């Protein structure tokens, strides 16, 4: 059973894993591919700027990714996994995903989610307040099941009577659906609106999405009234994307199977200006790993213009999950100020600043 410690900040909305006293915070850093190598140092700098508000961070730089695979023939070294098992938390940068099958290659981030049982990908999408009274125009969380659906990557390619036939296995289990449902309700319970929307396509996929929908809906009945204050809605995934752009204010916590959650959270990022702003954590019951939602962005990698904010915010989310809300608040406040003022911003937000310039400005304000 996941820990249930109260969260009072709307932005945080991630349950504290532990508030145990630590003298050091062992953090694994996995930049991986592309701009991951540019934004993870920014998150590290933000954490170092917090001083005594968190235990002294002890960083370990770890290897993984497609580029590492091309050099060494493996995407996720055993040493990386073993070091993470001995760490308190981690930050992952980005991984390149080849569009064609590469023999022997499998995504290291997908593997880590399974190995470390990081069953929930929690992606808050919050715009910097720009409405009367300071209320954000967009304030929602996508809670994405992180271990199954089509991401089990069981695919076959055969030759049929009319040419090639490709098939993929989609796995939805009651156990995984119940766990992610409980995570969604727990997050909603500690938000002002206390509302969960279940995203599915059970009108077509009545067995797999039907099981997900039914299992998530049944979670409150298993909890002896704990979630009585939480209201429940449902939305078919296609109409959910449509309404997300037209009426983002109707959503509070959106819970979805793996693939839908991935797509919806990327789409939601457009509502706040850029993928470069949106953070996430991969969370389990005993470990948490921050990860910016954006990919490796090979078109801009090495140019020093990647937006570091998603990575920095992911570090803040990671801290909240560990119970260090004061440090996380300082990071979020500094980021909010920089975004709101807009004088230092990267090209994805219409600016001309470099990654390091944005990082320096945020660190100065922390």
TrEMBL record:
Keyword Oxidoreductase part of the UniProt annotation:
yes
Q: Which GO terms describe its molecular function?
A: homoisocitrate dehydrogenase activity; isocitrate dehydrogenase (NAD+) activity; magnesium ion binding; NAD binding
Q: Does the keyword Magnesium apply?
A: yes
Q: Which residues form the Isopropylmalate dehydrogenase-like domain?
A: 26-362
Pull one GO CC term from this UniProt entry: mitochondrion
Q: Which cofactor does it need?
A: Mg(2+)
Single GO biological process annotation from the record? tricarboxylic acid cycle
**UniProt KW keywords:** Magnesium, Metal-binding, NAD, Oxidoreductase
* Family label: Belongs to the isocitrate and isopropylmalate dehydrogenases family.
Matches recorded under PANTHER family: DECARBOXYLATING DEHYDROGENASES-ISOCITRATE, ISOPROPYLMALATE, TARTRATE, HOMOISOCITRATE DEHYDROGENASE, MITOCHONDRIAL
What name goes with this protein? Isopropylmalate dehydrogenase-like domain-containing protein
Lineage of the species this protein comes from: Eukaryota, Fungi, Dikarya, Basidiomycota, Agaricomycotina
């Amino acid at each position: 059973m996941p820990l249930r410690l109260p969260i009072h900040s709307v932005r945080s909305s991630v349950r504290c894993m532990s508030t145990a006293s630590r003298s050091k915070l062992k953090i694994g850093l996995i930049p991986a591919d592309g701009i991951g190598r540019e934004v993870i140092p920014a998150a590290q700098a933000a954490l170092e700027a917090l001083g005594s508000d968190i235990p002294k961070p002890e960083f370990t730089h770890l290897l993984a990714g497609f580029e590492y695979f091309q050099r060494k023939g493996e995407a996720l070294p055993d040493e990386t996994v073993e070091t993470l098992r001995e760490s308190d938390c981690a930050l992952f940068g980005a991984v390149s995903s080849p569009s064609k099958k590469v023999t022997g290659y499998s995504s290291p981030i997908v593997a880590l989610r399974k190995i470390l049982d990081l069953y929930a990908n929690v992606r808050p999408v919050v715009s910097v307040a720009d409405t009367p009274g300071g209320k954000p125009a967009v304030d929602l969380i996508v809670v994405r099941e992180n271990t199954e659906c089509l991401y089990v990557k069981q695919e076959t390619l055969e030759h049929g009577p009319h040419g090639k036939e490709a098939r993929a296995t989609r796995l939805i289990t009651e156990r995984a659906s119940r766990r992610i449902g409980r995570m969604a309700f727990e997050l909603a319970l500690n938000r002002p609106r206390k509302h969960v929307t279940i995203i599915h396509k059970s009108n077509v996929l009545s067995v797999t999405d039907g099981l997900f929908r039914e299992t998530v809906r049944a979670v409150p009945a298993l909890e002896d009234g704990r979630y009585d204050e939480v209201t429940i809605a449902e939305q078919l995934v296609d109409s959910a994307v449509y309404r997300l752009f037209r009426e983002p204010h109707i959503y509070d916590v959106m819970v979805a199977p793996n693939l839908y959650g991935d797509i919806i959270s990327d789409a939601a990022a457009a509502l706040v200006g850029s993928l470069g702003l949106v953070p996430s954590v991969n969370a389990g019951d005993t470990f948490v790993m921050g990860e910016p939602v954006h990919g490796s962005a090979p078109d801009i990698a090495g140019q020093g213009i990647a937006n570091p904010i998603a990575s920095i915010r992911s570090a803040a989310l990671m801290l909240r999950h560990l119970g260090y809300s004061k440090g996380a608040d300082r990071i979020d406040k500094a980021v909010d100020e920089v975004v709101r003022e807009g004088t230092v911003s990267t090209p994805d937000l219409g600016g001309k600043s470099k990654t390091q310039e944005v990082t320096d400005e945020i660190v100065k304000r922390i």
